[in-house]
Structures are given as C-alpha cells and as structure tokens.
Amino acid sequence: MNKNKFASLVVLIAVFFGTIACKNQLDVGNPNEPTVDQNVITESGLISLAQGGVYINGFYNGDGWLGDSYFSLPWGYNELMADNLGADASNNQVSTIGVPDYIVYDDGTKVTNSSPSIGIIRTYNTRASTGASNNPIYYQWLNMYALNNACNVVLTKIDGITFTGDAATKANTFKAWCYWWKGYAYASIGSMYYSGLIIEDVSGANSIPNGNYVLHDVIIDKSNEYFKLAATTLDGITTTSDYQEVLGQLIPEFCQVGNGGVPSPEMWKRNINTMLARNILINKLAPFVDGNPNATITKSSTSAMSTSDWNDVLTYATNGIKEGDYVFTGRSPANNYFFSPSGGTAAALTTGINTSATFRISERFTQNFKEGDKRFSNNFDQTTTYKNSYSFTTRHSMIDGGNGQAGVYVYGSQTEGEYEVFIAGSYEENALMLAEANIRLGNTDQGLSYVDDVRNYMGAGIAPVSGKGLSLAGALTELVKERRVALIFRGLSFYDNRRWGWTYDIANGGGSYGNTVVTTGGTVYTNATINYNFLDYWDVPADESELNPSTSEVATKNPNF
C-alpha cells in the first residue's frame, strides 16, 4: 500500500465519532492534538474508534461530490453501469461511465457512442484526474482500504484494553466486528478490481510500500477467510449481555430500527453465510444472454459457475439471512450522519422529478416490472419526460417516499431517517440466491417459490410464478427481472449484469437484448439490442499503481480489455 495516498488516510477522525450514537464516549484530552495511542486507552475509546473507523472512514470520508457517501458514489457507478440509472452531470464521469458502445433499434438503426466506456475509464485513471475529482475508479478503492486499515488499527488495540464484565466476550465482539468489516472490504475490492493488495498491518505515512498485487479471486479468498474467522470468533461469545452492550454501541443507535438492530451471534453468522454465498455468485459467470441459459462468454476475467459452485451457494444461502433477522443497515439523521438524507445515497439522488434529479430511472430498469406490480405504481410516475440524446431518455420519475400504498416497498426518500440502506446482505438478496441456485440445479419450482416469497415480502401483489410449468429460460427470466427490481440501490446491480454476460462485447457472446429505449423524439422501441462492452473488473487506480507499482507478476491493468 503506498504511503502517499490511501495508506495515509488516518483513522483519527474516527476517534471523535462517538457523537454518532448521540453519546460523548471519549475523554480526548486536547482535541487539537489527537492520537490513537493517547485516546484509545479505554473501552469507550475503543468503541468510538471501531465505530468511526467503519462508518466514517469506510463510508463517508473522501466522497464529497454530487452526493456525499460510499452509497452515493461507488454505488451510484454500480447502478449507472447496470443501466438502472442515467445521468447528465459532468462530475466524476457520471454521464459517461454507463453509456454503452452502441444500440441497435428494432428497425435496425444503429446509434454509436463516440466515447466508449473503457476509453473513458482509462483516459481519466490518472493522478491528475483524481486531483480534479474526475477519476471514477478511485473512490471504491479509497473507501475500502480505509475501512480495512481502520480495522487493522482497532485489532492492534484490543488486547491492551481493560474491559469491564466478561472481558473475553467483549474482546471477541470487537474482533468479530473487525473481521466482518475486513471481509466486507476485501469482498468489495475483489469484486470490482482486476487485482488488489492484501494489507494486514497498520498502514500510515511511514509504512513501507507493498507492491505485491494479487488477482481479484485471491482477494475474494481473503474476504472469505475473514468472514469465516468472524463466525468462529462469534462462537467464543459466552455472555449475551456483554456482547449486546458492545455491539449495541458499535452500531449507531439511529441505525437500530427497521431491519437494522443488534443481531444475535446466530443472526450475525447467517449474515456471514449470505456474504459467503454472494462472494461466489457475483464473481463467476452464469450467462443468460438473449434468453439463452447456455450462453457462453469467450473473453472474461473470471470463470463460469460450476455445479459445485451452485451447490455451495445453495448451502450458504440455506443457512443465510432469514426473514426477520437483523442485518447491517444505515439511516440518515439530521446531524452526525455518515450519509445525508438528500444526497448520501444513489436512491436519494434519483428521487424526485426526472428533469431535475441527479440520477434518472432508466427505461431498462422499469421494463422489469410485471403488469400490476404495486411496487411500480407506488414508486414511479410518468408526469414528465427527461430527454437525453443517446440512451438515457426516460418517461419515469421516482416518487419521494412513494404513493402511500400500505405494505408496499418504497425505493427512495429524502426525509431524515426514512430511507434504509442495506449495507451488506438482506433477506431479499439471500432468498433470490436460493432461487437462482435452485433453478440452475434443476429445482425450478422450488427456486421460483423464493421469487414469489420476495415479491410477497415487498408487497408486489402479483400472481405467483411457481407451479406454472415454466421452462429453465422462463424461470431465469423471472429471476432476472426480480433481482433487477428488488435489489436496486444495494451495490449489486452491475455485478449481476456482468455475470449474466450482458456487459461483455457482443463479439464475445455478450450484449443485452429485448430492451426498451425511448428516443428524444418520443419513439418507443421495445426490442433494442445494446452492446455495453464494459471492463468486467476495473484497473487499479493510478494513485495506487503509479506510486506503488507492482512487484509481483500480477497486472494492475486488466489485460483482457
């Protein structure tokens, strides 16, 4: 890790983050001269550091632009590249990163992008562009290595703290917290970048650069290692009250509502299993191109799912998040937030009239709702049309807080504390992994029953699809539509399009078919072909690769594109 950029993101600001839980938890001495060694000497100090290291360093610092958090910037790019959203703002290439190479309309007319996405990414992956806030691939790396480093710092402090109550239980709770978030950080890096670094020591201004880059699948292996270590560490919890006391302070109080809360050790382990299943699913190919369940991609940075992989997903998800389990969520109060109500999430930036919102709901997203789906009528209207000359014209706006239909999911709100970010796994995601694994393993109706469950859970109000004799292709179509509409704004959409093969060049077996596209003149096409041709895994940001060049044989620039 280089000592000039990412590694020097100190966690000292996190020491003062105790206010996020509406408590002044730390005796800091002179607040103008804070240091970890001087301030983190008590249990309450460690809580402030461990909480702030996650929520401030991991999800807030460095993300000020059109939005203000990890959930608006890196997750915004994820939705843009999944073609769920469009944008025309110039900031950080949001208007270009999700634009496909070309579109072929139903009548055969071909419209070509003069600035393809791969060229844009590589043109602006420079230190100068980062300094000008114009390097889109910089931020996810920044946030996740800052999160990882913060956890490394906390781990060095735990054994030196005198705990009240059951010291072993409290120490294990802190360790599980760090292992969980390290697993999360490595999962994010390994799922997005072609290569990365495994950083296990405390990085800082005086640290030695580490150029030992490893491939993304090695990073995912490290993520799995930490998730499993978190699970075994939770087995060492012996005093429930002390566990709940610590975890109840690590998770901000304003996040302990709705699906958020203090999970029991068993709930937390189910969250871990969901993430283990996710790590397999989103980092392998399961092509479903133009309705073909047997499609293949001939040029990719990863491999196809095997029967063994599907069985592993099934095993983990079977023991994953259940309906009613507490999961890791985020909310936005008026003050001391780690994302703001109006700009801290991709959902917030999409909420409102499409002619004035930062992001706009894409026609490729709304086409996935089935007739009569209450989620559509509760959340979207067609009062205005936003016109963009290439691919982002849309007839839809997302309604702030929804239309008030009881029991129906709401996609976005700019009201303080209303919108719930699913930071990691959710019941819906886990159920849809069960659905896809079962369908791919030949248990079609069992898989479709989970699709029905998710639609019922979110208040869709549409007829069930299990037990209807659907073919494999028909079942996968239902699964794909439901993942698209159920899991938007959860940091997963691009990974889905990638593994289904849609983001790859048509020449290599990819592409997306049967799309709704609206022209600025008002013509509505419903069977357009789109060739995205995006990088499947991003290059390492230049701020890292140039200051900290590779000393291994692993490339920092994706060689497959």
UniProtKB/TrEMBL annotation:
The keyword Membrane applies. It comes from the Bacteria. Residues 1-23 form the signal peptide. It is found in: Cell outer membrane. PROSITE patterns: PROKAR_LIPOPROTEIN. Gene3D superfamilies: 1.25.40.390. The keyword Mitochondrion does not apply. Its main location: membrane. Keywords: Cell outer membrane, Membrane, Signal. Residues 432-529 form the RagB/SusD domain. Belongs to the SusD family. This is RagB/SusD family nutrient uptake outer membrane protein. It comes from Xanthocytophaga flava.
